[in-house]
Design goal:
207 residues, mainly beta
């Protein structure tokens, strides 16, 4: 008996394009884009090695790359994530993935590119579900909206990565991100600036 299953071919794409079509359902993380985050000690780090961001470096925020959606975390791993551009409605989520610690959490995010220092050219994605993190993203988004209304030729904020903190009665000092706008530039190019003077040693990898 033959084990061949005869599928109707009408309306199906060519087999030659099958691999590309199947890979399209994989998570859409752009190649070469690292994850940027602030750790619990208030240090900005990126990538799987938790490399520390160079002090004083400047970053361009992509005004067209703000996203919102949902994420479900397990024990230190992402069990599900659905994100969409802020120009689109908030995506709907399905059942909570098995093992999710807090269920679906609303998340916002944006993309940045380093303009100065040893990380110049690095592209990163910053996303957050925390109150402070979402406030940081929302604040810079509102600033961009105001800038576009005032001068649409320069919609890109050049920021430094700062921090604020507040005292939590149970968890102590809680750090929150601060994106401080230094200048505004156009989409067509990056601002050329000399690297910041620094006497700090080569970047230390965070534990």
């Amino acid at each position: 008996m033959s084990n061949l299953v005869a599928f109707k071919s009408a309306g199906l794409p060519a087999v030659s394009s099958l691999a590309q079509s199947l890979r399209a359902i994989a998570p859409r993380e752009a190649p070469g884009v690292a994850i940027l985050k602030m750790d619990r000690t208030g240090h900005w780090v990126f990538g799987s090695d938790q490399d520390e961001v160079e002090a004083g470096s400047t970053w361009a925020v992509n005004p067209f790359a703000f996203v919102h959606g949902w994420i479900a975390w397990g024990d230190g791993e992402v069990l599900g994530e659905m994100m969409a551009s802020v120009s689109e409605p908030l995506p709907e989520h399905g059942p909570v993935p098995a093992g999710a610690k807090k269920g679906w959490e609303q998340q916002v995010g944006m993309s940045l590119k380093c303009l100065t220092g040893e990380d110049k050219g690095l592209e990163v994605r910053y996303s957050s579900t925390s109150v402070g993190g979402k406030r940081g993203v929302q604040t810079i988004a509102v600033a961009i909206a105001a800038q576009v209304e005032a001068d649409p030729s320069k919609p890109v904020p050049v920021v430094t990565l700062g921090k604020e903190f507040y005292q939590h009665k149970s968890y102590g000092k809680i750090y929150t991100p601060l994106f401080e706008v230094q200048s505004w530039i156009g989409m067509e190019g990056e601002e050329e600036a000399p690297p910041p003077e620094s006497t700090e040693p080569t970047r230390r990898r965070r534990a």
